[in-house]
Protein 1
Amino acid sequence: MPHARIAIFNDTHGWHSVQLTEALSALGMEAVLIDLADCRIDTRSPTGLIIPKFETTLPDAVLVRGIAPGSLEQITLRMDVLHTLAELGVPVLNPAHAIELTVDKARTSLKLHLANIPSPHTWACENRQQALQIAVEELVKGHSLVVKPLFGCQGKGIQRIEHISQLDQLSVVGEAYYLQHYVDPVQTGQWQDWRLMVVQGEVIAAMTRRSNHWITNFAQGASCFASTVTHEMAQLAIQATAIVEAPYAGVDLIQDQQGRFSVLEVNSVPAWKGLYQATGIDIAGRLASMVASHIQHIRQVSFPEHVG
């Protein structure tokens, strides 16, 4: 492949950026590390964009590794940049629309529900009285609930509601109530779920996360172990990734006491350090190959006579 420069967007470039830089370099591509917040719109430019370190051209592709927290206006501007890059023909991985479908947990839940992909029962609303009424009804039926921020990751800010007495202290971020059925572990006191990495329609790596606490995120101290996956698990992860229109994603699955699997979350900007440590699989290498294939496709469409 002719020389290609790949923009990696993140507000803090660490282990993942190093992994990607090395993997891209092995395929003859150059990684350029940028903070998406440093990009800007400037309609004096032919593209309408100013991308640092790309003064006279656009990236050959973009990898979105992180979008820093910010105001609604700041996040909107950053997504504007990603949308526009895609409209200009630059492969953006993952694209803005996939990120928008997954960063909002309610939107993900709706997509999974409408596609008939198993996921814990979910409610989302703005009205506190409605949320409390739902919670009381479910608690009376014997269901515990998990309350999560609409936007959030790594298990931060989530609460488990087991008793009506807890509802007086219920607090949420941004006056948005996102409630989900709590799934009891198969073995009491031993919590686990599964993270599957899907790249271009294939599960390339999987691990189980185990904890003595009901929050099983790697960032919260869970232990990670390489895992085989059943056909059912793989299909769930592949379908969930496809329904949010993501070329790749980290999909979290959980198993109930009847042995049924369901999708807990779809992450379109997934970290994979725990997965790499558990499996040894070169995930960055697979992502670099995905980037190369997208660039190759764009060049074949744009310059078919020059691509061999």
Protein 2
Amino acid sequence: MPSNRRSLPPLNALRAFEAAARLGSFKDAATELGVTHGAISRHVRLLEDWLGPPALFRRLNRLVVLTPTGRALLAEAGPMLDRLAAAVEQHRSGGDSPPPAVLHVNALATFSLRWLLPRLAQFRDRHPGIEVRLSTSTESVDALSDPYDVIIRGGPDTYYGFTCHFFLSESRLPICSPDLLERQPLADLSDLRSHTLIHASSLPRVWPDWLRAAGMPELRTASSLTLDHFYLTIQAALAGLGVAMGPTALVADDLATGRLIAPFPDMTLPTRGYHAYLPDARADDRSALCFCRWLEEMGAADAPGADGPKERLSP
């Protein structure tokens, strides 16, 4: 008669593995769990012996790197430990409602700050049973070391083991503060010559591409200000330091409230839209799919309508 007994590894060994795999370091895992480096090493070895080959880590000089087998186990162990911790917390609190499902989301920093976070309360209100844990990075989808349920990047791109869901279109156009326009009007493209153009060093071609598409590739301005991140260029525009090139989706709220003005609203430069990438292992996950549907709904609400930009410049 077949046994219904579960075959489970030692919990402490699994915790040690998950921490070391997530942090990429036995030393950091030891600090997080309050044990010694040697204890982490012993627990990981115990787990590897319990599972049998292949190994979970490749051990280099002062570095440990997950093997494909280790990455696969981490993808399951992390969410499982999150659910177990939530269940324990729910028990301690004495509540009767089920613990929330934890959804790990990774997105670009500027997108998170200027589009996702201002809307996230709507998702929480609508889906109180899903807890979103958001982290940010600029790494490509297939270069992330930690497992995520949803990854938000530009696209569309093709990555092995992931499905891609479009949810938000994007283009770029000049933006500035209303105070700046009061001091220095921008009635015509040639008026840009008397202004400061704000550049992002991470995207050096944005202004040149827009000017070329607008028919003024040789335009020279009074001065320029270069910052190392797109988010900083938007903040500089809000502060009245010059004219920045704004991503329409990420400055839509500022344009709607008048904090920013688009002096040439009919001239936008098309660029890559935003997509949600789901690992194949999460393709049927209810929380991940629910989040993607919500992203699509929010993106559709922000899509340019009859009063949106009319002309899209060819780069």
